[in-house]
């Protein structure tokens, strides 16, 4: 299982991300990082986490 750290400009979080190899692709899913700033892909198990101090802009 891999881990990916995100900045505020990387949101919305989705998987697979652009750095993943083409052979490991699965259907694209958007991840809710919730209040904890952490989300896990239901397909591959990759954990996405906001970097400490990341600034998240609202709508």
Q: Which structural category fits the helices and strands?
A: mainly beta
Domain count: 1
Report mean pLDDT, rounded to a whole number: 91
Approximate helicity band? under 10%
Radius of gyration: 11 Å
Biggest sheet details: 3 strands, mixed
Total of helices? 0
What's the β-strand tally?
A: 5
User: What is the straight-line distance between the termini?
Assistant: 31 Å
Strand content: 25-35%
The helix-strand sequence is EEEEE
Overall 3D shape:
elongated
Sequence of strands across the biggest β-sheet: 1-5-4
As residue ranges, the low-confidence spans are none
Descriptive overview:
GO terms for molecular function: zinc ion binding. Keywords: Metal-binding, Zinc, Zinc-finger. This protein is mostly beta strands and 59 residues long. The chain has one domain. It has no helices and five strands. The strands form two sheets. Strands 1-5-4 form a three-stranded mixed β-sheet, with no helix packed on it. A two-stranded antiparallel sheet has the order 2-3. Strand 4 and strand 5 (47-50) form a beta hairpin. It is elongated, with a radius of gyration of 11 Å. The mean pLDDT is 91.
């Amino acid at each position: 299982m891999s881990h990916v750290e995100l900045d505020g400009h990387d949101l919305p979080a989705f998987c697979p991300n652009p750095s993943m190899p083409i052979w490991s692709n699965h259907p694209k899913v958007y991840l809710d990082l919730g209040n904890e700033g952490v989300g896990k892909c239901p397909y591959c198990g990759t954990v996405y986490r906001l970097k400490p101090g990341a600034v998240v802009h609202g709508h």
